Amino acid sequence: MILSVLRTSWTLLLRDRAALALSFVVPIVFFTIFAWIFGGQRDSGTHRVRLLAVDEDSSPRSRRLLEVLAAETALDLRLRPAPGESGAVPAPFDRAHAEQAVRDGEAPLALVVPAGFGAARLSFAPGGDAERPRLILLADSSDPIAPQLVTGLLQKALFSGLGDLFLEGGIDSLDGVAFFTPEQRTRLAGLLEQVRAEPRAAAGPAAGGALPIAVEVVDLLGAGKENPLVAFYAAGLGVMFLLFTATGAGGALIEERESGTLDRLLSTRISMGELLAGKLLYLTSLGVVQLTVMFIWGWAWFGLELPSHLAGFVLISVPTAFACSAFGLVLAATARTRKQLVALANLLVLSISALGGSMFPRFLMPEALQRASLVVFNSWALEGFLKVFWREEPLVALWPEILVLALWSVALFALARRLARKWEMV
Amino acid sequence: MKAVEIRGLTKRFGDLQALSGVDLELAAGEVLGLLGPNGAGKSTLVRALTGRVRCDAGEIRLGGRRADEPGARDTLGYVPQEIALYGVLSAEQNLRAFGRFLGLAGEPLARAVARGLDFARLGDRARDAVEPFSGGMKRRLNLAVGILHDPSIVLLDEPTVGIDPQSRERIYGMIGELRSAGAAILHTTHYMEEAERLCDRVAVIDHGRVIAVGTRDELVRSTIGAGKQVVVDADRQVPAELAAELAAQLPGAVADGERLRLTTEEPALAIPRLLAAFERARVGVRDLRLDSPTLENVFLHLTGRELRE
Predict the structure, then answer these.
(1) Do A267 and B13 touch (CB under 8 A)?
(2) CB A253 within 8 A of CB A333
(3) With an 8 Å Cβ cutoff, is B76 touching chain A?
(4) Alpha carbons B187 and B32: distance in angstroms, whole number
(5) Hey, which of A118, A205, A272, B45 has its CA 20 to 30 A from A18?
(6) Which pTM was predicted?
(7) What φ, ψ does residue B65 adopt, rounded to 5°?
(8) Rounded to 5 degrees, what are φ and ψ at B225?
(9) Looking at the predicted structure, is the pLDDT value of residue B185 above 90?
(10) What is the dihedral of CA A111, A117, A122, A126, to 10 degrees?
(11) Rounded to an integer, what is the distance from CA B176 to the centroid of its chain?
(12) How far is Cα B162 from Cα B158, in angstroms, rounded to an integer?
């Protein structure tokens, strides 16, 4: 009997394509996407942090530091903007340009080597940060990992690539209090030359040792925000649930077909095009209300700055809801049964949510995946919300996202209309 | 001018010839019953009338206008076989919603909704959600929704399936009211007694072809004839010799197990001869009855199948 139950259950599963997809395809798709995000694609290398560099010092020490950082495989160091169409090599970044680039989301960090960096003495001697050479990291704190990673890499660069400078600074510091003999000075100079000859062989600092350089992290975008990352999560989750809502509500079409109301409706004065357009408007309005409720909740409980960004919120919410609704109609018109729709929706919504950045920020993904994620419309929606709430860009800066979402909406609606022909007339 | 004129309607789905040159007419104030076994083409014909099936050939005219002319189908009321209602909405909300889809608004819509509630005898349940309604109540509302816009042509697709006798009577009453109001009604049904009771004429459709059309009496005369049917139930299997003797004496006598049927225009002469033959063969008679031919007999005669096959 137990074996009969086992056999019947497997037979039922094998005959149910929706359940099969949920059981096997969804996990594999998910695994693949997250393996890409976290593990890096086999041939795409590890995740590299883009770091813009501004050398205001232009000293041998600052140039040396940037050379060492440029050789660091975990960093994508950029000293100047990418060449324009003319091919002319642009001028190196200055602080204002680098700051704007970080604000625009072109890179999560910019390293500023201020004037005087090369002249300041490197020393392990006790003392406050004010006495040490200073580096400034201009950060977009929506990426919380990048500043920590770069600080660690700076530490590594300083001790491995610039070890001789430390040794020199240490000798100078000791010389101030210990007064070396000429013989000791000669031996120390020899040691210094040896270290310079093999810079990468130098030892790192002792555990718990302080950096002889002060690193100041300046949060360009999160500063002054009550709860800076809530905007990202509100947008990410909001768009994902919008997709689920749209596909669920779009499934009403399938129920209408099964119950016979669709047949009845189409025998009245309404055409299939009008019916779908009405459904699209309904789903869009539902989506806008859903996003509004979510963002109001975020404002009331988590300090999301909704009132001051209301216009931007409306501008990006409407095309987002529009595109999600058209997507829901496509799925509803594709599936033949409610069960098929649920399986299809789970597979596609979860996949494009992961790819588009709802579950894991796009800027933390490998670059290849970041570029690939632009093929899904929800990544544009999320980018729009981040522009409004995180980067606080002017409304006019939203035009690419609005345009792309509008084009997606039209294309998806046209596809839904075409797919719905099977219900219209035989 | 006929309310509905169908000429040479043809539709093929792959290998299946769903409609094969169907010709039908329906006059105002007339109820035409459409009878046919499952898969005969009834639903395809009704869906063609509503515009949901694109026919390969033929023509449909509604009130003298080609059905595909803009607005021609506005005169059509369709009551599907399914309970095509929104279960979570109230009866009144359903009527209001479908009324809007039928082009009604404002005061005409309000009047139509009130009339629909009264027509379905659901005035006291107007604001209740439809989902928990009985099958009969849903069927009545289903019908009321279909005629909200006061159509001159009404298509009823199995309007009494699966409901209690009281609700069925009410729906018969509703159909009668529609006919009295001058509507032309095409009524598909599986219930012969319903067709006999409600329909002025009956069209029998099989394999996509209308094989007979006329009043009940016309169909009986043209198929079975004016004869009555004598049915004798024996106390055992009718012996082959007796069956052969009766077939020779009384043409049309057919034995089937313990039953013998004879269709005759002179039952008073035939019955004594039958009984005498049974007595001679020493076969007892359990029951004997005289039946008038029904549409069921006509249908069986025309299609060789029971209606529910």
Answers:
(1) no
(2) yes
(3) yes
(4) 6
(5) A272
(6) 0.73
(7) -105, 145
(8) 100, 180
(9) yes
(10) -80
(11) 14
(12) 10
Q: Which of A259, A265, A268 to mutate to test the interface with B (most CBs of B within 10 A)?
A: A268
Neighbours of B26 (CB within 10 A): 22
A270 interface with B at CB cutoff 8 Å: yes
Give all domains of chain B, ordered by start, each with its CATH number: 4-221 (3.40.50.300), 226-292 (3.30.70.1560)
C-alpha to C-alpha distance for A48 and A340, rounded to whole angstroms: 40
User: What does each C-alpha distance from B57 to B19, B51, B76 come to in angstroms?
Assistant: 10, 14, 21
Q: Which residue from B74, B81, B84 is facing A269, i.e. has the nearest CB? A: B74
What does the angle CA A103 – CA A105 – CA A109 come to, to the nearest 5 degrees?
75
Q: What percent of chain B has pLDDT over 70?
A: 98
pLDDT level of residue A167 (50, 70, 90 thresholds): low
Chosen from A264, A266, A271, A422 to mutate, greatest number of chain B CBs within 10 A:
A264
* More confident site: B183 or B229: B183
What's the distance, CA A345 to chain centroid? 24
Chain B residue whose CA is closest to A260 = B84
3-class DSSP assignment, residue B61: strand
Q: Which of A327, A235, A248 is nearest to A280 (CA)?
A: A327
Residue B232 contacts residue B226 (beta carbons within 8 Å): no
Strands A109-113 vs A49-55: parallel, antiparallel or unpaired: parallel
B193-250 pLDDT, tens digit per residue, is: 888 889 999 998 888 899 888 888 888 888 777 778 899 999 999 999 999 998 888 8
Going by CATH, does the domain composed of A49-219 fall within 3.40.1710?
yes
In this predicted complex, what is the ipTM? 0.78
Q: Which residues of chain B lie closer than 8 angstroms to A265, CB-CB?
A: 101
Cβ-contact B63, B1 below 8 angstroms? yes
Residues 6+ apart with CB under 8 A from A138: A95, A98, A99, A102, A109, A110, A111, A112, A218, A220
Positive/negative CA dihedral, A173, A179, A185, A188 = negative
B130 touches chain A (CB under 8 A): no
CB contact under 8 A, A264 and B51: no
Q: From edge to edge, which strands make up the β-sheet containing A109-113?
A: A75-78, A49-55, A109-113, A134-139, A214-219
Statement: residue A29 has pLDDT above 70: yes
**CATH 3.40.1710: which residues of chain A?**
49-219
**In sequence order, what are the residues at sequence separation of 6 or more whose Cβ sits closer than 8 angstroms to the Cβ of residue A286?**
A245, A246, A249, A321, A325
User: Is A260–B83 a contact, with Cβ atoms under 8 angstroms apart?
Assistant: yes
Handedness of CA A373, A374, A377, A378 (dihedral sign): positive
What one-letter code names the amino acid at B212? A
Q: Of the candidates A261, A266, A426, which has its C-beta nearest B54's C-beta?
A: A426
- Supply the pLDDT for residue A342: 85
